[in-house]
Structure formats: C-alpha cells, structure tokens
Automatic annotation (TrEMBL):
SUPFAM superfamilies (UniProt xref): Creatinase/aminopeptidase
Any single GO CC term annotated in Swiss-Prot or TrEMBL for this entry: cytosol
Oligomer and partners: Monomer.
Cofactor comment: Binds 2 divalent metal cations per subunit. Has a high-affinity and a low affinity metal-binding site. The true nature of the physiological cofactor is under debate. The enzyme is active with cobalt, zinc, manganese or divalent iron ions. Most likely, methionine aminopeptidases function as mononuclear Fe(2+)-metalloproteases under physiological conditions, and the catalytically relevant metal-binding site has been assigned to the histidine-containing high-affinity site.
GO molecular function term, any single one: metal ion binding
Record protein name field: Methionine aminopeptidase
Keywords: Aminopeptidase, Hydrolase, Metal-binding, Protease
Domain Peptidase M24: 11-239
Record lineage: Bacteria, Bacillati, Bacillota, Bacilli, Bacillales
Catalytic activity: Release of N-terminal amino acids, preferentially methionine, from peptides and arylamides
Chain residues that bind a divalent metal cation 2: D105, H168, E201, E232
InterPro entries assigned to the protein according to its UniProt record, in alphabetical order: Creatinase/aminopeptidase-like, Pept_M24, Pept_M24_MAP, Pept_M24A_MAP1
GO biological process, one term: proteolysis
Organism: Anoxybacillus ayderensis
Amino acid sequence: MIICKTPREIEIMREAGRIVALTHQELQKYIEPGITTKELDHIAETFIRKHDAIPSFKGYNGFRGSICTSVNEELVHGVPGDRVLREGDIISIDIGAKYNGYHGDSAWTYPVGAISEEAKKLLEVTEQSLYRGLEEAKPGARLTNISHAIQTYVEAHNFSVVREYVGHGIGQDLHEDPQIPHYGPPNKGPRLKPGMVLCIEPMVNAGTRYVRTLEDNWTVVTVDGKLCAHFEHTIAITEAGYEILTTL
C-alpha cells in the first residue's frame, strides 16, 4: 500500500532530508586519500546525532554502520571498516537520517582525488540519469515513466542499469511501497499522486549489469569487477511536479 503523506509529514521529512544533505556536505570535507571508511562513518554518525536525528541504517536488519560506504566495484551496502581510500577511487556514500519519526535518504558517488576519464563519465551519466528520471515525476504520470527515462539515458551512454536493487517509498519506515525499478517500459505501475514520497536511486555499472553479494552478506559488487555508481534523492510528488527533500 502506498502511503501519501500530509503536508505536516512532508514538512518533517523535509527537515530529515536537509539533515541528510548537510551530512553529505560535511563528509565532502574529508573524502581524500588516506581516510578510512570507518572514519567517515564516525564523522557522519556524530554529525547526524548532533542535529537531533538518528542514523537510519545503524542496526537496520543488523547493519553495523551508520552509512553505507561502497568503493569502486562495490555498488551498494558497503560496510564501513578499515579500507583506506586511495587516489583515483570513487566512493558511493548512502546516508539515511530519522528525524521526529520520519526518514530521509540520499546517496551520492564522489571522486577521491583525480579520477579516470571513464570514472568521470560514469559519475556524470549516473547523476544525470537521476534527473532525467525526476523529469517524469509528476502527478498523474505512471511510475515506470521514471524507470524508462533512466534506463534510456544510461544505455544511450553505453552503461548498464542494475536490476536487482530498486528505489522505494519512504516515510515512517525506511522502505515503503512502491518499489521503483530503474529500467523497463513506460506507462506501467501506479499513477503518481501529490503526497507520495519516493526515493529514486539509479545504480549504474560501467560493464555488464550483473552483481553479486560478498560473504559479509551486505556488500554488493559488480560481477566483472568494473566500476559502478549510485545517486539518490528523496522527493515528494506535489500538485505541480516534485520537490527534492534531500537538499539544503
């Protein structure tokens, strides 16, 4: 069941999203060669709690970190640890914050120092595919118009869209209906309505679309070992279109 939020609920989620965006902004100061993913996790948790929120991911289904830190061929759900970032890496950081009972959720993929031209293109295309999808987020439109726009843009640039992981609704629960694939035909699924709050999060591989989960039962990597990227915003459907909630 898709739960449409009231204006008051969206107001609270707007603040949860702002805290997520502020945390991303804070972490960018520290993303450089030599820092560990565990250190980034500590910085993020401290910052989120300082803003009267709770890290959404900490303890979620047993997850040990406060954020997800996924490096290079790691797509999503990377567990913070002793891995040291190196020049030329890319790192996806997925942040969730729960404020007054409601969640905000956003992921961004960052360069670590100077990166390759292929990595730059991957980041640019994945980020732009998110916004191509958001252009289809308007009341009355079918959900998979978002999906189709993302897939079309990504594949036009010779990259692959991951199928196994999807976007989702969000609110008092971190993951709510509907599930939102980032591929598929247009004009399918439920019609979008004002009050829906959705996480749109294209996950894109430089090589084939196939992924697998490591023995830690969390970290998802590309099967071919090639780079991947992940960008995500939480949005609310409005009478006029959409509003990004995970922004400053």
